């Protein structure tokens, strides 16, 4: 992971800037809007780009994220997140952050206003925000890590205004890179020689990944979202791995459709259903 970060952090910045440009093209002008970034992460990059555009950016994460520097930052993170996460944050700050943010500023053509981002910790479900206070909810490759997706969707509906919208990108678990093994970060340009294609759906010999995954499939997500939101668009964003999907692998994974195996992720755009139409979900509904 260290090698991958050192060689790829500029690529991350450019990819993130491109995602934000698509968001602006899809959702229109953001200045003056209240925008919630669910799962902002230690780099809170999406929140930063939102704030740089003149919107009020609110970033929430299950771990403490700080937008300041100095030893006090690491003391607070140590107390809240533990030793491992503190070390990860320190390594990020020392080795990658400066170059990453500089590349993002170059890509976007503007400064990143770190102090303008409003950062909060949440418990993974309950958002520390009042009812009907948010215009737009955004999220990037976070929902595959959420254990209770229906509960989170209901919270989003609660905090969104009646005309509020969602813009959520989910990394598809059944894709070639969906197992989140670092060896498959660039499956088409740098395929792994150590980890077999779709190992997470096959032999599962390499299960040591940096984050927990809920393993939900696309049709399961769609059923959950449609009970709470009116879906304007369900967009498959990219294909990966076609050259690696051999006939033998296809037969072995016949329980999955070709779309499931080759779609890297999907973008969900929609709006809150009228209150009377929302069905409150819990784990038993799925």
Using brief descriptors, characterize the structure shown.
alpha/beta, 8 helices, 7 strands, 286 residues, single chain, 2 domains, disordered C terminus, seven-stranded mixed sheet
Brief overview:
By secondary structure, the protein is α/β, with parallel strands linked by helices. The protein contains eight helices and seven strands, in the order H-E-H-E-H-H-E-E-H-E-H-E-H-H-E.
Which stretches of 5+ consecutive residues score pLDDT under 50? 278-286
Largest sheet: 7 strands, mixed
Termini gap = 34 Å
What share of the residues does DSSP label as strand, in percent? 15-25%
Please provide the count of β strands. 7
User: How many discrete structural domains?
Assistant: 2
Q: What structural class do helix, strand and pairing data support?
A: alpha/beta
**SSE topology string:** HEHEHHEEHEHEHHE
Inertia-based shape: globular
């Amino acid at each position: 992971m260290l090698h991958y970060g050192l060689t790829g952090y500029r690529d991350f910045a450019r990819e993130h800037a491109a995602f934000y440009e698509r968001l602006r093209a899809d959702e229109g002008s953001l200045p003056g809007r209240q925008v919630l970034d669910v799962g902002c992460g230690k780099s809170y990059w999406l929140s930063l780009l939102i704030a740089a555009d003149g919107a009020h950016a609110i970033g929430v994460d299950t771990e403490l994220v700080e937008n300041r520097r100095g030893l006090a930052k690491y003391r607070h993170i140590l107390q809240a997140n533990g030793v491992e996460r503190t070390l990860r944050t320190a390594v990020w700050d020392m080795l990658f952050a400066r170059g990453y943010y500089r590349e993002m500023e170059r890509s976007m053509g503007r400064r990143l206003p770190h102090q303008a981002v409003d950062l909060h910790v949440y418990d993974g479900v309950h958002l520390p925000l009042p009812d009907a206070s948010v215009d737009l909810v955004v999220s990037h490759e976070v929902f595959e890590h959420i254990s209770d997706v229906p509960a989170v969707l209901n919270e989003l509906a609660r905090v969104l205004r009646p005309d509020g919208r969602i813009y959520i990108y989910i990394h598809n678990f059944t894709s070639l890179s969906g197992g989140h093994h670092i060896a498959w970060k660039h499956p088409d340009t740098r395929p792994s020689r150590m980890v077999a294609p779709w190992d997470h759906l096959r032999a599962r010999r390499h299960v040591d990944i940096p984050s927990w995954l809920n393993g939900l499939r696309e049709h399961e997500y769609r059923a959950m979202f449609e009970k709470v939101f009116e879906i304007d668009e369900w967009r498959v964003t990219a294909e990966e791995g076609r050259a690696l999907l051999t006939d033998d692998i296809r037969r072995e994974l016949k329980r999955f459709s070709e779309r499931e195996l080759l779609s890297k992720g999907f973008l969900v755009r929609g709006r809150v259903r009228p209150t009377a139409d929302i069905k409150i979900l819990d784990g038993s509904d799925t």
